[in-house]
UniProtKB/TrEMBL annotation:
Belongs to the QNG1 protein family. It comes from the Eukaryota. One of its GO terms (biological process) is tRNA modification. This is Queuosine 5'-phosphate N-glycosylase/hydrolase. It catalyses: queuosine 5'-phosphate + H2O = queuine + D-ribose 5-phosphate. It comes from Rhodotorula graminis (strain WP1). PANTHER family: QUEUOSINE 5'-PHOSPHATE N-GLYCOSYLASE_HYDROLASE-RELATED, QUEUOSINE SALVAGE PROTEIN. Keywords: Hydrolase. GO terms for molecular function: hydrolase activity. It holds the Pfam family Q_salvage. InterPro entries: Q_salvage.
């Protein structure tokens, strides 16, 4: 397992490893295109969107709200399954995960969001919360009846989610915490507003937040979910009377999954045509079949977005 840089140099390591990966991959960044894009954003369009994440619920405690936010961050992956999720739930990937987490919170005190609930998470339980069917109907080949057929793609997605929850629940039990929200609250108090310390704590404790990859024999640090959580907590609780300092996130690296790189390619900010990675050199937003990338290629593209 690739080790983590020290907390005090974590953000520098993210930038340096991503810049090195981008250079090795011969991905070009057009500074003029960046200026054009930024200057084209109207202030009235940006300001209303810069509000953080407020849930449509009255939480009983700050810890409960942290629990929901942290679990949302935990399950905020599956970018490569967005079409499958849309087919299954008839909604966007993020909306599906959000509604599932909120349904879990509302279901019962000993829900999926507790340490015990996470450890016992199952595909069937998640299917019920997300209102996803694990079977499809089709006409029988030789009889005038409709039969149910197992939806392998749906089950794969649900098993991935259940696996992450089980793994995280085990880590929480080992740390002696009753929920992810309780752990996050303690970590925020200890970090004293240091976003690097908080992100490092997340990544060193929970494998699902350890967004580290080895490409061309070199580590690439991204920590998308941990950075997302630090930013959301900072925006949500800034100015609130809470028992912790909100993470200072000004100047932190961006959190990149597949969405940001796609935008940057679309805007001409990232140029992939000369990349040494054949899959990236051939990538075209107009050709969906070229968007299915290997882990290494996807990491190179995400690193370029961070750079």
């Amino acid at each position: 397992m690739t080790g983590l840089p020290p907390a005090e140099s974590l953000f520098a390591a993210i930038r340096e490893s991503c810049a090195a990966c981008t250079a090795r991959s011969s991905i070009s960044i057009d500074g003029q295109a960046i200026d054009t894009f930024i200057s084209g954003i109207k202030q009235e369009d940006w300001t209303p969107s810069n509000h953080g994440l407020r849930m449509p619920l009255a939480f009983e405690s700050v810890e409960d709200e942290l629990n929901v936010l942290a679990t949302l961050a935990l399950l905020n992956f599956l970018s490569g399954y967005r079409y499958v999720l849309h087919r299954m739930a008839r909604s966007r990937r993020y909306s599906t995960i959000l509604s599932t987490v909120l349904a879990a919170y509302l279901s019962s005190p000993d829900s999926l969001l507790s340490t015990t609930g996470m450890i016992g998470a199952s595909a069937a339980q998640l299917a019920s919360l997300a209102r996803i069917s694990t079977h499809t109907e089709r006409q029988h080949e030789s009889l005038p009846v409709t039969v149910g057929v197992k939806d392998d793609e749906a089950l794969e997605v649900l098993e991935l989610l259940a696996g992450v929850l089980q793994q995280t629940g085990a880590a929480l039990r080992a740390a002696g915490h009753e929920s992810l929200g309780a752990w996050v609250h303690e970590s925020l108090v200890a970090a004293e507003g240091n976003a690097g310390a908080f992100v490092h704590d997340l990544a060193s404790t929970f494998p699902a937040f350890r967004d580290v990859h080895v490409v061309d024999g070199e580590p690439v640090y991204l920590f998308k979910k941990a950075l997302w959580l630090a930013t959301v907590v900072s925006l949500r609780f800034k100015g609130e009377n809470v028992s912790f300092q909100v993470p200072a996130v000004v100047g932190t690296p961006v959190f990149a999954d597949n969405v940001l790189p796609t935008l940057l390619v679309h805007r001409g900010i990232l140029s992939l045509s000369s990349s040494t990675d054949p899959a990236l050199a051939a990538l075209s937003l107009a050709k969906p079949d070229t968007l299915l990338l290997s882990s290494d290629s996807a990491t190179r593209l995400r690193a370029a977005a961070v750079t």
